[in-house]
Design goal:
7% of the residues lie in helices and 47% in strands. The chain is mostly beta strands. It has one domain (3-90). The strands form 2 sheets. It has a 5-stranded mixed beta sheet, with helices on one face. The longest helix has 7 residues, at 77-83. The model has no long low-confidence stretch (mean pLDDT 85). The chain binds zinc ion (ZN). Residues 12, 14-15, 17, 40, 42-43, 45 line the site of zinc ion (ZN).
């Protein structure tokens, strides 16, 4: 089955610790687009990370714990950010954007 598995990294916005993520995408699969609320293992900073691809099959390899998650199609992002006291989600590129964005390209 032609699955994709990409190793991506992000950094804690507070202490810059490297966080390694194994991002999975399954061809023909459900691929629930969404993101996570991560907690840095070094400084305990909580921040939102917009994974973009399947947040159920992807996982954090090192650097952070997953504390919460949202499903973009269910429109959970703003609610999850709010209940964690967060305003914006980090993008994999490191950009920070407001949660009420348009549907991403597939
Ligand atoms: Zn940190």
């Amino acid at each position: 089955m032609p699955n994709e598995c990409a190793a991506i990294t992000t950094h804690c916005p507070k202490c810059s610790q490297t966080i390694e993520i194994s991002q999975r995408w399954t061809a023909g699969g459900v691929n629930d687009y969404g993101g996570w609320v991560l907690e840095c293992t070094n400084c305990s900073e909580k921040f939102a990370f917009d994974l973009g691809r399947d947040f159920n099959d992807s996982r954090v390899i090192s650097g952070a714990f997953i504390r919460d998650s949202w499903d973009r199609e269910l429109g959970e992002e703003a609610m999850v950010l709010e209940r964690n006291g967060l305003k914006t989600a980090l993008q994999p590129s490191g950009r920070s954007v407001a949660p009420a964005q348009t549907e991403g390209s597939r």
